[in-house]
Amino acid sequence: MGFLARYVADHKSMNSLDLFREIYGGRQTATGKTVNVATAIEVSVVFACNRVIGNGVAQVPLKLMRESADGKKKVPAKDHPLYNLMARRPNRWQTSFQYRQMVSWQVELTGDHYSYINRVFGKVKELLPFPSGSVRRIQDNFDDPEFEVTAPNGSRRTLKSSEVLHLHGPSLDGKC
């Protein structure tokens, strides 16, 4: 049951602080503990599982490939403009390993990862990851979703889908 249904069904026992926690701070369990990403990774099993999965994803070399001229095999596309970006350094402060490990953790813990696709003169120059929880899908259609990004200072900006790399985990409705 979603937070709004719980609030409507039990509005007498849920105060505004409980509603705020439901929306922004995670869920409170039967023991009274709030569970969110920060508290979940404090559990050693959660941390260890995410580390193993994240390292497994990140350690596999990421190379863009293309078909050979004869079409019989795949060869590295070293001349592709995104080859070095994905294989070596997606931005100024992360290696490919660090970026893919972070992406894996975000997808595992929150179900989504978002990065800003920074283009200069139409060419992709870097992928800038958004912090977890700072991006919200605001247009709910398959053709061209938009994303609202909230900056640390509280300001908001709407981005087109062509400006955002969105990677997501499993979904029951396919929309994510």
Radius of gyration based on Cα positions: 20 Å
Structural class: alpha+beta
The amount of beta strand, in percent, is: 25-35%
Number of strands: 10
Concise summary:
With 176 residues, this protein is an alpha+beta fold.
Which helices and strands appear, and what pairs or packs with what?
Layout: H1 3-9, H2 16-25, E1 27-28, E2 34-35, H3 37-40, H4 44-59, E3 65-67, E4 74-76, H5 83-87, H6 96-110, E5 112-120, E6 123-129, E7 135-137, E8 146-150, E9 156-160, E10 164-168
Antiparallel strand pairs: 1-2, 3-4, 5-6, 5-10, 7-8, 8-9
Structure description:
There is one protein chain. This protein is α+β, with helices and mostly antiparallel strands and about 180 residues long. The chain is built from six helices and ten strands; from the N terminus they run ααββααββααββββββ. The strands form four sheets. It has a three-stranded antiparallel sheet. The chain has a three-stranded antiparallel sheet with strand order 7-8-9, with no helix packed on it. Helix 4 packs across helix 6 (about 95-110). The two termini are about 20 Å apart. The model is unreliable at about 10-15 (pLDDT under 50).
